[in-house]
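Methods — Computational structure assignment.
A single polypeptide chain was analysed. Its primary sequence is given first, followed by the predicted tertiary structure written as structure tokens.
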Amino acid sequence: MPEATILIVDDEKPFCYAVAEVIDQIGQHETLIANSVPEALELLEMRLPDLILLDLVMPNTNGLDLASMLRSKDAWARIPIVALSADTRPETKISALTAGANCFLPKPFTIDELRIIIQPFLLEKSCNRASDTEAA
């Protein structure tokens, strides 16, 4: 059983596969990949991830719009979102956080940077799972 399910949303397929490989090095996590916002929404209807890595710049509907959609729906509102972008201007970071991202990770990033950013969200999930087990 995977430790966590992580949804990667980015229109660049090679980037998604590279991030999925990095996540495999971090732990026993399942990765789901969506290359567009409609694809991400379709996956979210079928399965709730424990964490979303979300590119902000995509054609048609962008990551900011998806983050806002996620925060407006009760079933998705609590899923942590890590916004990803090569656009590191302060206003981009502020827009990501305002739209509902929990944090911002600039592209490109290292394995260690990704690990440090996602670890607290994965630990929180593990703690919640442990307390659910104890309560049962």
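Note: Helices lie at 13-26, 37-46, 63-72, 90-99, 111-135.
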